[in-house]
UniProtKB/TrEMBL annotation, chains A, B:
GO cellular component, one term: cytoplasm
Gene name of the encoded protein: purS
Alphabetical keyword list: ATP-binding, Cytoplasm, Ligase, Nucleotide-binding, Purine biosynthesis
Name of protein: Phosphoribosylformylglycinamidine synthase subunit PurS
Organism ancestry: Bacteria, Bacillati, Actinomycetota, Actinomycetes, Streptosporangiales
Family named by the database record: Belongs to the PurS family.
Length: 81, 81
C-alpha cells in the first residue's frame, strides 16, 4: 500500500484572494516578514497497490479529471516518503 | 527570499467527508485502486528573509494561530526546495 500526494495550487497568474487575506491578516496578528501567501489544496490518496509508473499515471488522470481545475490550477503528483 | 510550505490536514481520527466523497466518486469515473482519500490545505508563504530556525518558529506560530485549527487539524512546516 502506497500513499500518493496531489498538491493543487492556483496558477501563478490567477489572483488568490484567500492567500491575500491571510497575508494581510498576519501583520495585524503580530507576524512580520511574510511577503505573500498562496493557498491551495492537498490530497492524500491511499493506493491499494504499489505506486509504480502505471499507478502514478492513473493518479495524474484523476488530478486532471476530478481534483484540479486545470484552467486555473496546476497540480503536482508525488509519492509520500 | 525563501518559500515555506505549511500543510494542514484533518487529524486521522476526524471524519473527512470531502475526502470520502472523492473516494466514492473515483470508481464511478472509472478509476480503481484507491482505498482512501483525505483532503487538506496547502499554504505557500514567501518569506522576506531566510528560512532560518527563528523564521520557521514564527511560521509554526502562524500555523497554530491562523492557518490550522489545532483542535481538529495537524500541520507540518517545511522549506520548499
Amino acid at each position: 500500500m502506497a500513499r500518493v500526494i496531489v498538491d493543487v495550487m492556483l496558477k501563478p497568474e490567477i489572483l488568490d484572494p484567500q492567500g491575500q487575506a491571510i497575508a494581510r491578516a498576519l501583520p495585524r496578528l503580530g507576524f512580520d516578514g511574510v511577503g505573500a501567501v498562496r493557498q491551495g489544496k492537498r490530497f492524500e490518496l491511499e493506493l491499494e497497490g504499489p505506486a509504480d509508473e502505471a499507478a502514478l499515471a492513473e493518479v495524474r488522470k484523476m488530478a486532471e479529471t476530478l481534483l484540479a481545475n486545470t484552467v486555473i490550477e496546476d497540480y503536482t503528483v508525488r509519492v509520500a516518503e
